[in-house]
# Entry
Amino acid sequence: MIAKDIKIQPAEGKLGVLLVGLGAVSTTFIAGVELIRRKHSKAIGSMTQMGHIRLGKRTDKRNPLIKDLVPLATLEDLVFAAWDIFPDNAKEAARKAGVLSDEDVGKVGDFLEKIVPMKAVFDQRFVKNIKGDNIKAESNKLALAEALMKDMEDFKRSNNLSRLAVIWCASTESFIELAESHKSLKDFETALKNNDPSIAPSMIYAYAALKSGVSFCNGAPNLTVDIPALQELAMEMRVPISGKDFKTGQTLMKTVLAPGFKARYLGVSGWFSTNILGNRDGEVLDDPGSFKTKEESKLGVLDTILQPEVYPELYGKIHHKVSINYYPPRGDNKEGWDNIDIFGWLGYPMQVKVDFLCRDSILAAPLVLDLVLFTDFAQRAGLKGIQEWLSFYYKSPMTAPNLYPEHDIFIQETKLKNTLRYLMGEEQITHLGREYYE
Ligand SMILES: NC(=O)c1ccc[n+]([C@@H]2O[C@H](COP(=O)([O-])OP(=O)(O)OC[C@H]3O[C@@H](n4cnc5c(N)ncnc54)[C@H](O)[C@@H]3O)[C@@H](O)[C@H]2O)c1
# Structure
C-alpha cells in the first residue's frame, strides 16, 4: 500500500520543544542535543539521527538514512523551554540529576543556564514525595490550563517559532482509574471549570497543548492523554498524541527477550524482575500510589507478547513479579535484575539471568528526541489522534479502543518503518522475498 494523497508540509522554521519537568531525563536530552550540535558527541540511540531504512528490494541497494528520506526538523531547528516545580535552571538541574559528568555539563553550561523553568501546574495529592514552590497561583483548573496556553503562545512568539511540541518528562503521578469526567470532552471541560479532583495536573498540560493545536507525548505511565475526552480533543484539533511511559531499561530487555522465547516455543514459568535506583524518579516511585502506576505499566508487556490464552501449556502459569527499590547511592545508574525460569523440550527447566547496569536517562534521552521529531513530522503529514506507530518508544502503548497493544519490539520497529515508507510513498517491506527465486 502506498499513500497517494498525503501532502507533507515542509519542516520550515524553528520547532519549539516544551518539556514538562526539567529533571534527569529532560536535562540529559537538552544538554545532549547541544553537545551534539557543538560536535562534542554523537546521537547514539536515536533512530532519527542514526537509523537507516531499507527501500525496495534487497537487490536495489537503497538504504538511506531515515533523516534523508523523511523531512524531519533538524537538531539546529530545536529551541527548548520547560516547566518545573523547582526554579533551578537547566544547568543546576543537570548537576543535581548527576547523570552527565561535570565536564559535559560545563561544555554547554552557558546554553543550559538560559533555560529557566516556567511555573508549573502541580498538585501534591498526585506526587507525594517532592515539594517545590515554582508553582502557578491560579486555583481553578481551567484558569491553570489557560495560563499554560499563554506560556506556549509567549514562548512561540518571543522565539519566532513556527511549530511547538509538548512532551511529559515530569514525575509519575499517582494511579487513577478512568472517571466519568474523562469520558467525553464536554464532561472534561465542565470538570475543569468545577475544579473536579479527578483531573490530574498532567491532564491540564495535555488539554492546554491540544487546545492550542500542539502535539503531546507522554513519557510517564500516568493516564494523562489516554482518556476518551482528550483523544476526542486531539481528533477535533487534528493533533497527534502518543504514550505512555518511555521504554528504557528492564522493559526494553523484556520486549527483546520474550519474543525470542516465544519464537522458539520455549515455555516461561516465572519472570522475577527487580530494580534498584536512587534518582528523584526513584524517590517519587517510593510512594505506593506512584509505584502502582509504574507497576501496571511494567506488568502489561508479557501477556500480549506471550499470549497465554493461545499457548496455555507454555505461558498459562507464568508468575510475573516486578519491584523497584529506592536506593540513593546508585543515583541515575539503575541496576535491573531479571531471573527468568524457562522450560524446553519435555518440560526440562532452565534459567536465564539478566543483570542490566544501565543509565536510565542515557537510555531515555534519545527517545525524547525521536518522539519530538517524529510527532512533529506526523502533524505536518496530517496525522491526528493516537499514533500507534510510535509504540516502539513506550512501555504501555496507546491504541484505539478494543485493540491490544503490540509490545514486541521487532513488530513495533517494523510498524514504525513501514509507516515511514507508507507516508513517503514507498512500498512496505513484508520480507516475503519470493521474487528472488522465481
Ligand atoms: N529515565 C527513564 O529511563 C524513564 C523511563 C520511563 C519513564 N520515565 C519517566 O519519565 C519521567 C521523568 O523521569 P526523570 O528521571 O527525569 O525524573 P526526575 O524526577 O529527575 O524529573 C522529573 C521532574 O518533574 C518535575 N515535576 C513533577 N511534577 C511536575 C509538574 N506537575 N509540572 C512540572 N514539573 C513537574 C519534578 O520537579 C522533577 O524535576 C518520570 O515520570 C519517569 O517515571 C523515565
Observations:
- The radius of gyration is 22 Å.
